[in-house]
Amino acid sequence: MRKQTLLGWIGLAAAALVLFGFRWLLRRRTPSFHHS
Question: Which residue would you say has higher pLDDT here, 1 or 20?
């Protein structure tokens, strides 16, 4: 595997984890604060 490809996959995984964790934190801190 190429280094660039590996870094790209790691970056995608990291971004997904950050987004998921951020949404989870927001949901935990504010139960019904924002109406989507």
Answer: 20
